[in-house]
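User: My collaborator sent over this chain with a note saying "see what the structure looks like." That's all I know about it. Can you take a look?
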Amino acid sequence: MQAHPLRLVPGQDLRDTLENTVRQLGATAAFVVQGIGSLSVAQLRFAGIDQPNELRADLEILTLAGSVAPDGAHLHMSVSDAEGRVFGGHVARGCIVRTTVEILLALLPDHAFSRETDPQTGFMELFIRDRPRGG
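Assistant: Without extra context I'll predict from the sequence alone. Here is the result:
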């Protein structure tokens, strides 16, 4: 496992930046170990809901974790607003960094992740394969 710390800057889209970073690093498998920071917009899909819910406020990221494959990510996040209310769910595109986001990526060079339709769930799920050394 290789640790890769990352800092996002104001205006960046959190999910797009993570997915692009993993591709630019040439990684085939990564996990977001943790993330903290602030957002001005959060797009969170709540459990059992098809569309994300947009939150526009000064938001603090309390937790951020998930897996990142070259063909997409599966991320969950909890955020709090200025009144201390906490919201959490699946991270969609459009989560915009307000001041900073600090993330620790764990790159897994011995593995290859992909997102494929799982016949049992009917959803795009994580498939994990061993990656031969040197390839």
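A starting point for your reply to your collaborator: The CA atoms of residues 14 and 47 lie 20 Å apart.
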